[in-house]
Amino acid sequence: MALDRSSLVPALINIAVRLRIDSVKSTSEAGSGHPTSCCSAADLVAALFFAEMRFDPKNPRHPGSDRFVLSKGHAAPLLYAAWAEAGAFDRAELLKLRLIGSDLEGHPTPRLPFVDVATGSLGQGICAAVGSALNARRIKSDYRTYCMIGDGESAEGSVWEAAQTAAVDALDNLCGVTDVNALGQSRPTMWRHDLEALARRWRAFGWHAIIVDGHDMNAILDAYAEARGVSGRPTMILARTLKGKGISFAEGKDGWHGKPLKKGEELERALAEFELQFVPAPPGVNLPQQIPAPASLPMVAPAPRPMPPPAYKAGAQVATREAYGTALAKLGEADERVVALDADVKNSTFSDQFEKVCPDRFYQSFIAEQAMVGAAMGLAARGAIPFPSTFACFLTRAADFIRMAAISGVGIKMAGSHAGVSIGEDGPSQMALEDLAMCRAQPNIAVLYPCDAVSTERLVALAAYHPGPVYIRTSRPKTPVIYSADETFTIGGLKVLRESRDDVATVVAAGITLFEALKAYEQLQAGGTRIRVIDLYSVAPVDREALAAAGAATGNRLITVEDHYAAGGIGDAVAEAVSDAGIQVHRLAVREIPRSGKPEELLDRFGISASHIVDAVRAVAKGKPAGVAR
Amino acid sequence: MALDRSSLVPALINIAVRLRIDSVKSTSEAGSGHPTSCCSAADLVAALFFAEMRFDPKNPRHPGSDRFVLSKGHAAPLLYAAWAEAGAFDRAELLKLRLIGSDLEGHPTPRLPFVDVATGSLGQGICAAVGSALNARRIKSDYRTYCMIGDGESAEGSVWEAAQTAAVDALDNLCGVTDVNALGQSRPTMWRHDLEALARRWRAFGWHAIIVDGHDMNAILDAYAEARGVSGRPTMILARTLKGKGISFAEGKDGWHGKPLKKGEELERALAEFELQFVPAPPGVNLPQQIPAPASLPMVAPAPRPMPPPAYKAGAQVATREAYGTALAKLGEADERVVALDADVKNSTFSDQFEKVCPDRFYQSFIAEQAMVGAAMGLAARGAIPFPSTFACFLTRAADFIRMAAISGVGIKMAGSHAGVSIGEDGPSQMALEDLAMCRAQPNIAVLYPCDAVSTERLVALAAYHPGPVYIRTSRPKTPVIYSADETFTIGGLKVLRESRDDVATVVAAGITLFEALKAYEQLQAGGTRIRVIDLYSVAPVDREALAAAGAATGNRLITVEDHYAAGGIGDAVAEAVSDAGIQVHRLAVREIPRSGKPEELLDRFGISASHIVDAVRAVAKGKPAGVAR
């Protein structure tokens, strides 16, 4: 920036006024939105976009450009106004805010090229910003990541997970801005304007904290400059602002959250007030045309090398969670974009195998699953292929992040280990029995559930290159390798493992229950009864045609068996898939809160062991319903 | 406590040694568990149970007794040993740890009378402890709540949500203890033994923090006494400990997490070491027999008064979220056990109506949904009837808490507003489209989804007195009142709103889509086609018989329509319910990530409007599949 402050400051003040006008106009036109939450932050955003960040408005996705994550997503109109001001699109578009035909939605989504991750569920953007900052380190770029959060938002625990992760990783390329307007949605925030209270928190969490008047352009510029100079830790700028700044009748007043100005007198009055806030500016200053380009070309990862085929012997006993770790390490060696994230369970999920071979691309989130998944979202949005893994049950801790990852469409590759009652003695708190329901509910998450080491390795590789989010479910107990190294798998596929012309029913299993199904097959065969056995390793999407065909070939009798609660998992997935084919599905699943015990005891106690499958086959073959009703 | 320190301290030291012995023996016998995580905390627990807390070992649920929540649930063997030492049950039971026939599970659950909420998913116990402390205030009891967390656990954002809530509410009846053993599962914690770093955090969050040597019994007693004297804010005791304390070959060493000592030489060596740690104690001191009784009898809430019937006129336009607020306020006036919790959206969920009439029983969690649901768990465990409410999509933030609430079986009554695409312009981040899947996945959560104000009010009252967790889903738009005030509802019921002998299909709807179904009914009727219309206000459990009967009476044609994603919601619930009856279910649901727009545009765009229902009815009546495959 060659401009001196005497030229820069008035130009920025005028931009901030324009951003306020745009935010107010567009929300009034839409008839909904959060204009006062935009007005408090307008000066901070004006300075950031037009005197601090390096980016290309025409190519917002440039891999070396500085990033801005609007964690307080309800200030979307301000974000859109800033990008319009920068020249990314025509300002007239702003008046289409919130219309079904416009990508300028109520809260930002990556349908817009300048949005990395969807925000609007508070406390998530800053977790993604940590991932973006980690990514800069990964690609050896000096791009900086800026993230604006709200003061009300600062009550979310995930904000503090992000804070500690960023501090532990010494992310001095990350700069947060808290728009401390003191007013939440329904009441004052817990800190009101006690900025020191907030600063104490950030400092206690290892950040450099700067308190600033968020409507003093000189002070804002100083703060950004100071943040840029801080080394070894991230910076949080805590800006004292007024909600509705610039609108005399709303400024600093409660009761204005999420309320557009009424078109007509109310809006006109505000616009007239804004007009008076423009200041004389030196001629010839055009900040949008002076935005500095991204400073450096980042490293381009070499093309991925082919992964060597799985090296397992048939019959070897390998837990799928362990095969996951092995696969992840091989994948990491083959493709430098692959990164892994852990929440202090790497020796249980076996992601420590990845850490051993790719320590620079292994990120430790400690026991903070929201920060882990959130950072993965930011990494994925910036070109990495992130595998966050923990116990499957603890991924539910990040359920809202997974929801937002689905909305964002970002390619995070989640892996959850220790699924189901088959973990045994640790008891229900450690058993994931609703993880399939959680991930399958989202319309764009692929859900994979391998039963052996070979399929695990193949599915991990498929997951990496699948566009969008993927969930891989692994199990604690060792299971025999049943597939040969050259077996092929597809997302949306299944394997028919046993079949004959005489099959009286099809048993659809996955993961640990596949082996119960195979045991049931043996027992039934000994008694002269044949069944078809399907390994449904892809739970979402499912292979409808193959399931329907198997059902049709086996007397329209499909039995699902899953180490998961009865609702939302494999039973529901199969039932929906074959519903148009008129096939009934009988479900074996866990139907009550389980307890501690030995894995095999629990599989039997909760109705999903081989003997229950045998009973179910015999029942449905006689035309009776199998499985226990809820 | 009449004992002086010279008698007390050696007696406590010896109890701590016994607790270590029991923890080590029981985990070795079980062949799994976390003995070293017990050993670090044994001195802290010994002092707490036998020189600080007031309780009745024979009646752990006494409403006036001090509470102990073991948030670091993996130290369960220590908890069990302490209760055995106190005389709650026979010490010999400890050797049944983790067996399927014992309630001494791998992590604590309320199957045990001295456990309020299940722990083992880290960072949750302390949120529940906040609820327990709030409850003491509610019932005007001076009981104190103690909560032990791990240092690794302190990375969970929910811990900091609990911290801020407790500080804002000035809970000086809450005392936390952090067992800072410096070792996580897979590596050292981020703070290792930097207790000052942890103290800075707690102080910044408004707590009184005390740093103590967690193996110095005198210092521990001093800390508890100091905490008891602190007024106006909660206290966190940060105790420097060694993981595996007392076992020379494990003490302070990495690699011992979750690992029992091998029976035989390894175990015997440790036991021999423990024997040498007993100290000479004065005769006649029997601390377990000297535990002080609960100090005061708490207030007993008066019997609930009958709620006046709903006061709505047929056809009045009332959003179910608003009716929820009205119902909650009426319920709160009728029953003093009812409390409400908010996450700064009370003016959108209308829980502010409750705050107006019962301000003392309204708890503000600010934007911290995990703390809100966690506090509700603690309140429910102590006899309150808590209604935590927020936008339905933000309840997913607490998904892991909901999972643990289900395991705990505690009667939290969650209400989620703004469900589905029908919220309109705010966009996908604010639309709950997976909340039914989340709650329905749990085998013991009742899921209710009213369509009008009358049914909302009736279902809120039913929820309050239903044993166990309940989820109530409400909508943003206004809908007409269709039920009369004397209509009766049951959990597990449904209403057939339109029926005739000539119905060609049954449309099953709930909430906002019920009105689309009624519109479709009118349109079809105008063309001479009759359909049956069902209001499935109880999504879990569902009325299987009535659904099957409706299906059978309408050509085996059931069409579900829901403002929810296709997986895990009403379609799956109905399909499972009627699967044994051989009825096919055709599903209309949201099948892709939605976007901003007007509510009616979105209902139509995403396939769940009246016109889609009409099309589906016509298609299935001709024998064609309806609805779009995933």
Explained architecture:
2 copies of one chain form a homodimer. The first copy, chain A, has 630 residues and is an alpha/beta fold. Chain A is 38% helix and 16% strand. Chain A has 22 helices and 19 strands. Chain A has a 7-stranded mixed sheet, with helices on both faces. In chain A, strands 1-2-3-5-4 form a 5-stranded parallel sheet, sandwiched between helices. In chain A, strand 4, helix 8 (217-229) and strand 5 (235-240) form a beta-alpha-beta unit. In chain A, helix 5 (125-138) crosses helix 13 and helix 6 packs across helix 13 (369-381). Chain A is elongated, with a radius of gyration of 28 Å.
In one word, what is the shape of chain A? elongated
Percent range of helical residues of chain A? 25-40%
Low-pLDDT windows of residues of chain A: none
Our Rg estimate of chain A from Cα atoms comes to: 28 Å
Individual helix count of chain A: 22
In which order are the strands of the major sheet of chain A placed? 8-7-9-10-12-11-17
Give the helix/strand class of chain A: alpha/beta
Mean pLDDT of chain A: 96
**Largest binding interface between chains:** A-B, 118 and 118 residues
* Number of distinct beta strands of chain A: 19
The fraction of residues in strands of chain A falls at 15-25%
The profile of the biggest β sheet of chain A is: 7 strands, mixed
Oligomer: homodimer
Terminal residue distance of chain A:
67 Å
